[in-house]
Amino acid sequence: MTDPLQPGAAIGILGGGQLGRMLSVAAARLGFTAHIFEPGANPPAGQVAARTTTASWDDAAALAAFAESVDVITYEFENIPTATLDMLQQHRPIRPGREALRVSQDRLVEKDFLRDLGLETAPYADITTLASLEEALSRIGTPAILKTRRFGYDGKGQMRIGKPEEAADALALLAGAPAVLEGFVPFECEVSVIAARGLDGAVTCFDPGENEHRDGILRRTTVPSRLSIARRSDAVLLAGKILNALDYVGVLGVELFVTESGLLVNEIAPRVHNSGHWTQNGCAVDQFEQHIRAIAGWPLGDGQRHADVVMENLIGDDMDQLPALAGEPGVALHLYGKAEVRAGRKMGHVNRIRSRAER
Amino acid sequence: MTDPLQPGAAIGILGGGQLGRMLSVAAARLGFTAHIFEPGANPPAGQVAARTTTASWDDAAALAAFAESVDVITYEFENIPTATLDMLQQHRPIRPGREALRVSQDRLVEKDFLRDLGLETAPYADITTLASLEEALSRIGTPAILKTRRFGYDGKGQMRIGKPEEAADALALLAGAPAVLEGFVPFECEVSVIAARGLDGAVTCFDPGENEHRDGILRRTTVPSRLSIARRSDAVLLAGKILNALDYVGVLGVELFVTESGLLVNEIAPRVHNSGHWTQNGCAVDQFEQHIRAIAGWPLGDGQRHADVVMENLIGDDMDQLPALAGEPGVALHLYGKAEVRAGRKMGHVNRIRSRAER
């Protein structure tokens, strides 16, 4: 166990999108400076970070200089090339650690990991050939969903298979990428737990939020969720189990399906998570600060919920609602500083706050 | 009335201290970029701003380039040289406007302004000579406090006069600077109102907070204050009167003494104010965002208080308490990224939050 980082220390963040942006602000609030590493020009996070390096993930010199300039390295997304991580970790600790990335970068590895922990998932199968897909479909049934093992997010790299006859076409669309088939499970709702584990092994969870998706993208998270008290403890215990198994340091998002027979794990994300944005206006310490605290070796903060919140993403031309939202009572706006509005692009979010006393 | 600034617009901020820093974060949250102008190297605000210009207040070329790079100019402190403002306003609007600066830069002008509005202040007198000081002391009585008319803050430029015989020495210490003498008034407590006025003339106030000072520096602000409901309306009406008289745009801090006979205005600050930091954890829209909304021509946001908060400044070696504070439940930390801890220097603050439901 190393000493906690002192104010003035530098936090390196891989990725300069909105999550890196909100991590930068949280780092500053604790007296740290943020240094963003991002291949794309003018990243949103760069607008609120002390330093930004614009370089590709295979630029060894830039990676070394970046790593040497910071005290600890973290990331806003899990699909960082392995070779990049290999180079960086020669210089500075990467938190959360490599095991969390190894597991979450690959859907099959992740599902095997969860099953080995004794956690429930939807039925799934490793798909390598049309024969294995046909075999899996006959076992799992339709509809089912074929997903690339790697690099999927916000519904990308996914194909719904409605009937067994669609198997060959679906597989062809993946162009040979390794895949998993997942069965559909009837669920009452989807919730997520934003969990954190400190460098000392302490674990804490934010109140589970209830998620609604549209077109594979999160639209809305509501706290409190409709989870029963018993299910809330199940969710928190399950998240703790995952964190401990990974010897995790930082914030982790766990998406869960709530079914009649219990909770199924949909997926895990080794980072701050869109479904945890409500914490910015519902807690003394939000998920971004909680993550920075953990990777800085600080004690985890007080994530107790003090308000009811509905978080809604502003996607693409949802930005047209801005004038109305700006004047709406109880609304906290969080925009990401992205220059261009594009369909499906996350431009910001709003937290609609209701004091717990008003319920 | 001009159109509201669109996301992507740039906010110019004069001064790079903690107020500029928190204004920058608020600007980013609304999708704006911040550009800091600050003569000192490595300003705290620069760590979270998209751009920083390091140049002196009389560097005409730097001021022009700064002004041309932004859409509107604001400031974190009121003592900006008049010549600087003259140069800047040739290029871009300065909000809050010049009248607010003219009034608040000079204690005598400010007190005359308040009195002309029909507001109560402590007794005061213009001091130019020893004879005028002696005359004022005989009228106002002792103890009294001799203050420079300009450039005072956090108790600097102030001299307490306990007995008439100390008059000559006190005056000599001011070395000929124009001064005012202020009488002490017995007050129950000091409160402040953080008020805002939009470009459209709309006015809103945050709940008044109760202040405690030590050595001339604010130590603690508590909301709710002990003000009666009637006095709260008095405070809010009075703040609105000041805002309207100045045709003000932005956030203004009004410090008030609560006495048996009513409210006296101690001083006004044409900017976000230390006693409004509690709003960061008590409201959907805090004073920093409210200020940015106003100067950007946006509707004012919802500043309704949803929690009880006690704000405490971390001054100098208060920073030694950091490990304990980091682990304290209900505490939100806000550090300013200042490299060096010095006695009397504001290093950060904490907001201790209590849900309104817990009262």
Summarize the helices and strands and which ones pair or pack.
The structure is a homodimer of 359-residue chains.
Chain A: E1 10-14, H1 18-29, E2 33-38, E3 51-54, H2 60-68, E4 72-75, H3 82-88, H4 98-104, H5 107-116, E5 124-127, H6 130-140, E6 144-148, E7 158-161, H7 167-173, E8 179-183, E9 189-197, E10 203-205, E11 209-214, E12 217-223, H8 229-245, E13 250-259, E14 262-269, H9 279-282, H10 287-295, E15 307-315, H11 322-326, E16 331-335, E17 346-355
Parallel strand pairs in A: 1-2, 1-4, 2-3
Antiparallel strand pairs in A: 5-8, 6-7, 6-8, 9-10, 9-11, 9-13, 11-12, 12-15, 13-14, 15-17, 16-17
Binding site for ATP (chains A, B): 107, 147, 152-158, 182-185, 190, 213, 266-267
Pathway (chains A, B): Purine metabolism; IMP biosynthesis via de novo pathway; 5-amino-1-(5-phospho-D-ribosyl)imidazole-4-carboxylate from 5-amino-1-(5-phospho-D-ribosyl)imidazole (N5-CAIR route): step 1/2
GO biological process, one term (chains A, B): 'de novo' IMP biosynthetic process
Keywords for this entry:
29% strand, 11 helices, four-stranded parallel sheet, Dna Ligase, domain 1, alpha+beta, 359 residues, Rossmann fold, D-amino Acid Aminotransferase, Chain A, domain 1, phosphoribosylaminoimidazole carboxylase activity (chains A, B), homodimer
Task: Characterise this structure.
Two copies of one chain form a homodimer. The first copy, chain A, is α+β, with helices and mostly antiparallel strands. Chain A folds into three domains: 10-94, Rossmann fold (3-Layer(aba) Sandwich), CATH 3.40.50.20; 123-183, Dna Ligase, domain 1 (2-Layer Sandwich); 189-358, ATP-grasp fold, B domain (D-amino Acid Aminotransferase, Chain A, domain 1), CATH 3.30.470.20. Chain A is 27% helix and 29% strand. The first copy, chain A, has eleven helices and 17 strands. Chain A has helices spanning 18-29, 60-68, 82-88, 98-104, 107-116, 130-140, 167-173, 229-245, 279-282, 287-295, 322-326, and strands at residues 10-14, 33-38, 51-54, 72-75, 124-127, 144-148, 158-161, 179-183, 189-197, 203-205, 209-214, 217-223, 250-259, 262-269, 307-315, 331-335, 346-355. In chain A, the strands form three sheets. In chain A, strands 9, 10, 11, 12, 13, 14, 15, 16 and 17 form a nine-stranded antiparallel β-sheet that branches. In chain A, helix 1 (18-29) links the parallel strand 1 and strand 2 (33-38). The first copy, chain A, starts with 9 loop residues before the first strand and ends with a strand.
